[in-house]
Amino acid sequence: MVSATAQLPRKVTRPSRAPRPASLGPQPPSEVRAIEWVVSLLFWAQLLVAAVLYASVALAPKVTTLLDLSADSQSLNSQLVALERQVTDMKKVTEALEHDPRVLEELARLNLDVTRPGEESIPVGPDLMLQNEMTRARSYQPEVVQPWYATLIEAFAKNQRLRHTLLFVSAALVLVSFTFFHASQVPQFSSGLKNVRDGATRLSTRYRRIDSRH
After folding, report:
1. Which pick of 154, 181, 186, 195 has the fewest CB atoms within 10 Å?
2. Using CA atoms, how far apart are residues 68 and 57, in angstroms rounded to an integer?
3. How far apart are CA 30 and CA 43, in angstroms?
4. At what angle do helices 101-112 and 29-99 cross, to 10 degrees?
5. Is 182 helix (H, G, I), strand (E, B) or coil?
6. How far apart, in whole angstroms, are the C-alpha atoms of residue 53 and residue 6?
7. What Rg do the C-alpha atoms of the chain give, in angstroms?
8. pLDDT of residue 57
9. 145, 155, 153, 166: which is closest to 62 by C-alpha?
C-alpha cells in the first residue's frame, strides 16, 4: 500500500518594500508665514548693518572733531585750575613780602649769597633754589584721557581705504537685500525649501531600501 504524502503549499516570503514617499504637496500656511518672517528679518537686518556702516563713514569726521574739541576743553580746564592755584600761591607770597620782614631778609641773603656767621653755604642746582620756585611760571601740561573708541573713530575718519571698503560693503548689502531678500522672493524661498525637503526624503528612502535588502 503506497502512502502518498500531501504536498503542502509553501509560503514564500518576500522582502517588504519601503513605502514610497508621498508627495509633500503645498506647504502649510504656518510654514509660509515662518518663511516670510525669516526673509523679512534678513532683509531688515542687512539694511540695518548697511546703514550702520554708512553712518560710521559719514559721521566719523564730525565725531573726531567733537572728540578733539572735548580734549582741548579738558586741557584748558585743567590749565585754568592750575593757574588759579598758582595765583593763590603768589598772593600768599606777596602778603608775606609785604608783612613779614624775615621773608625779605631771607630773599636778600639768597640773592646776594650772604651767609651768617657760623653758616656754611652749599651750592645747589637752579631747580632747587627757593627764589626760582617762587618767581618762575610753572608749565602744566595735563594728561587728557581719550575714550576707548577714539582710535576706531579716527580710523573711520582718516583711513581712506577703510572708508571705501565700508561704503562698498554697505552698497552691496543694500543690493543683496532688495534682490534676494525682498518680500517678493518668498515663493522662491518656499519652493527651494520644498525641493530640499523632497531631496532629503528621497535620499532617506533610498538608504532605507538598501538597508532592507541587506
Report:
1. 195
2. 18
3. 20
4. 90
5. coil
6. 90
7. 45
8. 94
9. 153
Q: What are phi and psi of 28, to 5 degrees?
A: -65, 155
Report pLDDT for 21. Answer: 44
Q: What is the 3-state composition of the chain as percent helix, strand, coil, each rounded to the nearest 5?
A: 70, 0, 30
Q: Which of 17, 3, 56, 62 has its CA nearest to residue 210?
A: 17
- How many C-beta atoms surround the C-beta of residue 170 within 10 A? 21
Three cell numbers, residue 143: 594728561
Residue-level pLDDT at 161: 95
pLDDT, residue 15, reads: 47
How far apart (Å, rounded) are the C-alpha atoms in residues 179 and 83?
63
Residue entry with cell 593763590: 88
pLDDT lower than 50: segments of the chain = 1-6, 8, 11-13, 15-24, 137
Distance in angstroms (rounded) separating the CA atoms of residues 138 and 87: 11
Spatial contact of 183 and 40, defined as CB atoms under 8 Å apart: yes
Amino acid 92: pLDDT: 85
Cell (9 digits) for 178:
532688495
Long-range contacts of 76-81 (CB under 8 A, 24+ apart): 78/140, 78/142, 79/140, 79/142
Mean pLDDT taken over the chain: 76
